[in-house]
TrEMBL record:
Species lineage: Eukaryota, Fungi, Dikarya, Ascomycota, Pezizomycotina
One function term, GO molecular function aspect: oxidoreductase activity
Domain EthD stretches: 14-107
Similarity field: Belongs to the tpcK family.
The name this protein goes by in its record: EthD domain-containing protein
InterPro entries in UniProt: Dimeric_a/b-barrel, EthD_dom
Stored Gene3D superfamilies: 3.30.70.100
Species annotation: Cladophialophora bantiana (strain ATCC 10958 / CBS 173.52 / CDC B-1940 / NIH 8579)
SUPFAM superfamilies the record matches: Dimeric alpha+beta barrel
């Protein structure tokens, strides 16, 4: 079975600084979810925190309201479905949602499973 990758977009509560958001995510939320979902936790969960002050934001509407983009890899489509179901199980869902309400704008959460991968490189002229 081929691995499946998904993107997760998260937005912090406006009452938190970016540092508070990141610290809570890394020190509290991720360990909590991992403990609740193990062994249904994904293979990898790579988190990219946006740098809104970099001046390198292009697009309209502005994508700068996203605070975190996570790249999540599962062993297979079946493993992804099992992880998502485990997250929604009675008891687990309530614990995760209560924790998320402390630092996330849950109304803006987006989860997108990705399709095929096409990687191309171009030679640079020197």
């Amino acid at each position: 079975m081929a691995p499946v990758t998904a993107l997760l977009f998260r937005h912090r509560l406006p009452t938190l600084t970016t540092t508070q958001f990141r610290d809570y995510m890394e020190d509290t939320h991720v360990p909590l979810v991992k403990s609740l979902l193990s062994p249904k936790h994904p293979l990898t969960h790579t988190r990219y925190y946006t740098n809104k002050d970099s001046g390198h934001v292009i697009g309209s509407p502005s994508p700068t309201d996203v605070d975190l983009i996570a790249v999540i890899t599962f062993e297979s489509e079946e493993a992804m479905q099992q992880s998502l179901q485990a997250r929604q199980a009675d008891g687990t869902r309530e614990i995760i949602e209560a924790d998320e309400s402390k630092f996330l704008d849950r109304s803006k959460v987006q989860f997108v499973a990705l399709g095929g991968v096409d990687v191309r490189t171009s030679a640079r002229e020197e």
